[in-house]
Amino acid sequence: MTQTPQVPQAQPELAEVRNFRDVGGLPTVDGRRVREGRLYRSGHLAHATEEDAAFLATLGLHTVFDFRNAADIKLEGPDVALPGVRNVNIPLTDPADGAEFWTMVRDGELDQLRSALGDGKAAARMALTYRHIITTRTADHSRVLHDLADDSVPALMHCAAGKDRAGLSVAVTLLAVGVERDAIEADYLKSNDPHRRYKIRRSDNSAVGMSPEVMELLSPLFGAHADYLTAAYDAIEQSWGSTEKYLTEGLKLSPETRERLRDRLLEG
Q1: 258: part of which helix (H) or strand (E)?
Q2: Which end of the chain is more exposed for a tag (fewer CB within 10 A), N or C?
Q3: What sections of 118-242 are H helices per DSSP?
Q4: Bridge partners of 158?
């Protein structure tokens, strides 16, 4: 009988790995469920404690997909090494790409933040980037899905916060195996849970620098919003005409590959 990786009954709260969770249990449109212990998501692993790493080592991971770019890795550091685990770095577009933009987020004064992020500009930037990832990174998402179908599971997908680049990659994976869209959205929105949410870093930690207005202006950048996923779905419809064509023509998934992917990730 094949040994399966240890699957915790409750989702652990890791000390220095944000937003970790198993996406197992999500329902598909044809009545199946994602198998537990096959696909995980999180923020980066660069600051994982020894205890965090020891827990991750119990999951039997085959591959860690790191969607951070070079700037992220320079800022946060490389992932901790997990024995026997393959690490694959596939840099995806950051919703706040650009050193100048992040400098403004970290150091900008209130008037500058109002100008750059107010009146819905921050949310619009995020939605635009979700669309951009869908339309320009199909080859990257195709590579991930083919890797999963070729048995790169159990797998962990992460970016910096585990919210946008990893969140969208998980969503695409779940679409490919037929998970219900409401369930995909519910899992995506878990990144807003207080204990999962990415910590906003500001150079000015004063009452002014971290004021409620500043936090409200920054919130769209650091939160998960259903409108962002909707923007991604809209991009699929506008670019390919349907989800089915996106999967077959955009992601180049043959019926055989999709069946293998379902066998890897679904129960039954």
Answers
A1: helix 255-265
A2: N
A3: 121-136, 138-149, 165-176, 181-189, 212-222, 226-240
A4: 42, 66
- Residues 103-130: tens digit of each pLDDT: 787 788 888 899 989 999 999 999 999 9
The mean of the pLDDT values for the chain is 89
Per-residue model confidence (pLDDT) at position 5:
41
Contact 58, 81 (CB under 8 A): no
Tell me which amino acid residue 129 is. T
Using alpha carbons only, give the angle 190, 13, 263 rounded to the nearest 5 degrees.
65
Q: Which CATH number fits domain 21-265: 3.20.20.100, 3.90.190.10, 3.40.50.1860, 1.20.1250.20?
A: 3.90.190.10
- Please say whether the beta carbons of 101 and 173 come within 8 A: no
At 117, the amino acid letter reads L
Q: Is 197 exposed, middle or buried (0-12, 13-18, 19+ CB in 10 A)?
A: middle
Q: Which of 72-76, 167-171, 241-245, 250-254 has the lowest mean pLDDT?
A: 72-76
CA dihedral 258, 59, 88, 179 (to 10 degrees): 30
H-helix or E-strand containing 42?
strand 39-42
- Global pTM value: 0.89
Q: Provide the phi-psi class of 48: left if phi over 0, else alpha when psi is between -120 and 50, else beta.
A: beta
What is the rounded CA–CA span in Å between residue 223 and residue 192?
Answer: 6
Q: How far apart are CA 125 and CA 227, in angstroms?
A: 12
Give the rounded percent of residues in the chain with a pLDDT score beyond 90.
Answer: 70
Whole-number pLDDT of residue 63: 98
